[in-house]
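Possible race condition, two jobs.
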Amino acid sequence: MESVFIVVVVLVVFFFVVQKRFLKQEELKDSEYKKKGALLNMQESAFYNALVTAVGEHGVVLTKVSMSNVVAPVATNKKHWFIANNRIAKSYFDYVVCDPRTLEPRVAIEFDNGKQLDKGKIERHKLLMHVCKSAGIPLIGATIKHSYQVGRLRRLLAAHIDLIEPDKEVRFCKRCGSPMVIKTASSGEHKGRRFFTCSRQPHCTYTENYNVVFEEDSSE
């Protein structure tokens, strides 16, 4: 009698496990996914390349970092904590430079894509400034100009990361985002003059005057 009871129990458990797994598989079949593409657009990628170059071995650059992974609310009760957490739950930092050994955030960077200010963008900036100020995280505002003049970007970072030092100018191609190299004209009316040219030549023929100077931001 006991053996019959054991067999029944085993069959019931087996049926339950199989049914549970089958139902889970059926649920998953209703959900299919596809890649959305690159995480960053062309402007964001160009700036990311410039930022990685500016930081060098002195930091790790992360992008699209959820605020809730970097900061946490400081609240006296659960209600206030819940409200404060909701404010940052769906927001993120454009770029975060972290310590290369511990990945502790050192600097947060907000990338200005040049689009006109609207209510949502203004509210985002207010939140970013408040979060960074209260958490003691330096916040740097950057534009697409910094993608082409890495020296300026390095100077901004050097104010917060001691090991980073400004050095010679480094630029990235405005057309494709690739590093640019310095060459000297060997013929023509500009013979002997230095100029920047895209490292992907002949695939990209963008060139730039060596002495071109972008307008300095008033914030600097």
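Job #2 (started ~2 s after job #1):
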Amino acid sequence: MLLRRCLPAAILALALATPALAQDPSFRLNNRSNATINEIYVSSANDNSWGSDLLGQNVLGPGQTLVIRLPQGQCLNDIRVVLANGQSHERRRVDTCQITDYNIQ
């Protein structure tokens, strides 16, 4: 009898927790290419500038991953990656609340 009373409460708690998770814009950027990434920029789609390079003095080698932490609720973001050869890749208005991984190939 106790299980029947607790189960609906547990389901309700899970249902209430899910929307909060859906608003988490953080994600893993995975370098699945053969090139080294020298710069990574992620900014709100509402911003007119890229902001600072998230790698700083570091690089992201082939096969490496970087966790990108963003403010809660900042779901629409622009992503720019600059490779060691100077080539850049940009993607605008990525809904990062809907992804857990972003792969550079």
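The first strand starts at residue 27 and ends at 31.
Logs attached separately.
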